[in-house]
Structure formats: C-alpha cells, structure tokens
Design a protein that fits this description.
Largest sheet: 6 strands, parallel
Order of helices and strands: EHEEEEHEHEHEHEHEH
Bound molecules: S-adenosylmethionine
Helix content: 25-40%
Strand order of the largest sheet: 7-6-5-9-8-10
Structural class: alpha/beta
Number of helices: 7
Distance between the termini: 25 Å
Strand content: 15-25%
Radius of gyration: 21 Å
Number of strands: 10
Shape: elongated
Oligomer: single chain
C-alpha cells in the first residue's frame, strides 16, 4: 500500500495486484476480514476488506494501531556492490537489523554485475513487512565511494579487516569500543567489497576527520557477514 493517499479513518483504497492476489488467493480472505495495513509512512492501521475479487481488493481503514516512529538514529548502511545473491541477503538482513537507509557504493575493487535497485527496494519492503517495521529503508542507487565521501557529513564507521593482521596486535578499535565514545548525530556504517578497500581508498578514509576504522574481530569476514556484524553491534550499543 505504498502509493496510497495519507492514511485516515474510513479511507477506502485498492491494494496493488500482487497484494490483492496474496490476500484473495493465498490468504483466501474475504469481505469483512480484518487485516493489518502499513505504507511505510503513516504507521500501522487496522483495516477491513471492503470488496474482494480474484484481481481487485479494496481495504477500508478502521483505526491506527501504531504511530509511525520518528526518524531515530538508525544507521545508514553504505555497502559496496557484491554479487547479487549476497547483496539481496544484505538488504533483507540490514532491514531486519534496523538500517535507516542503504546506499549502494561502487569502489575501485567492486566487481558488480548489473544492480536492480527496484528489486532490492522490493526486498527491503518485504523484509520490513516480515519484521513488522513501520518504516521501509530506502535503497539508494550506486554512487562512487570517492564521490560520496566528498559530501559525507555524518560519522563514518568503516570496517577495516587489515587491522587484524598487522603484527598481531589490534591497531584499530573493536566496533563496540568505537561506538561507546560516539556522541549523538547521524552515523553511517561503511563496508567494502569482496576485494576490500584499496590503498587509495584507505588513505582517503584515514584522512577524513569524520571517519573511523573499526575492527570486527580477528577473522576476515565476507562483506555480507561484516555488514550484519556491524549492524548487530550498533544495535547492541545503541539499542535501536
Ligand atoms: N581484504 C579482504 C581479504 O583479504 O579477503 C577482503 C575484504 S572483506 C571480504 C569485505 C569487507 O568487510 C572489508 O572491506 C571490510 O569493510 C569488512 N571486513 C571484513 N572483515 C573485517 C574485520 N575483521 N574487521 C573489520 N572489517 C572487516
């Protein structure tokens, strides 16, 4: 119901074809049956099926059951493009783990095939429904890392796996330690591609006053594991 007018008592509107088919054919619901409705913008509402046919389902809104959360301090995930299946898994899990937005990135070692942002956005929508989030993270089309960094004003926490291998001791703080010293304000979590950040990117990041490298443990994680590990640690530290 993402393209509806603002939700209000008594609003009657049509579900899109996929939703209509799911409600009528898969869930086999009929007129008068109650459903939970949200559009990622106006909170969650109790609705009643107003008219049901194989192809068309109209819903009447009865009452709001959950208010839309204020845009809190959900972290933005900056993820370098990785292979399609892994990227889709990252989108789904990052949605469950509370990522606010998901910015796709092209880095100097990104070997990405074609990225279908619309499909990734649908995955985020479906994951938000399953995890009962009222807001749906926006998946933002790929931009080059160096372009993004030119205007990034938020705190950038980036995973740097090399810290685990320099002479054995950890030269870069573990993420939870880095988060403990963080004040309020927007935060992005930046994860590199399968090939990692290259020397130029590492140099650029280490020179940024608003960027901090973090360690996600003593092993090299795949990009999808690193993204989920970082989001989980963020959630543990920030409670969102
Ligand atoms: N350079 C790695 C290698 O030699 O295989 C490849 C990069 S790793 C597959 C993908 C990304 O996950 C890295 O760019 C980094 O952002 C993050 N990452 C993986 N393991 C990490 C760790 N132990 N600590 C911090 N970040 C890590």
């Amino acid at each position: 119901a993402e393209t509806t007018p603002p939700f209000a008592d008594g609003l009657i509107f049509p579900l899109n074809p996929d939703q209509a088919r799911y409600v009528a054919a898969v869930m086999r619901l009929g007129e008068g049956d109650e459903v939970s409705v949200f559009n990622g913008r106006d909170g969650e509402w109790r609705g009643r099926l107003h008219s049901v046919s194989k192809k068309h389902v109209h819903v009447e809104l009865v009452a709001q059951t959950r208010a839309q959360p204020a845009a809190g301090n959900a972290p933005k995930l900056l993820i370098a493009l990785v292979k399609r299946a892994r990227l889709e898994a990252i989108i789904e899990k990052a949605t469950e783990l509370g990522a606010g937005e998901i910015q796709l990135l092209i880095t100097r070692r990104t070997n990405a095939d074609h990225t279908n942002v619309a499909r990734l956005q649908l995955i985020a929508q479906e994951a938000a429904e399953q995890t009962e989030r009222l807001d749906v993270p926006q998946v933002l089309a790929p931009v080059k890392l160096e372009v993004y960094l030119k205007t990034a004003a938020e705190t950038l926490i980036y995973g740097d796996e090399d810290s685990t291998h320099e002479t054995g001791e950890r030269t870069i703080p573990p993420m939870l330690e880095a988060l403990s010293g963080l004040g309020e304000g927007a935060v992005s979590i930046l994860i590199g591609p399968e090939g990692g950040f290259d020397a130029v990117e590492r140099q650029t990041l280490s020179a940024l006053p608003n960027a901090m490298a973090v360690n996600l443990g003593p092993r090299i994680l795949r990009a999808d594991t690193a993204a989920l590990s970082a989001l989980t640690l963020y959630q543990a530290a920030k409670g969102d």
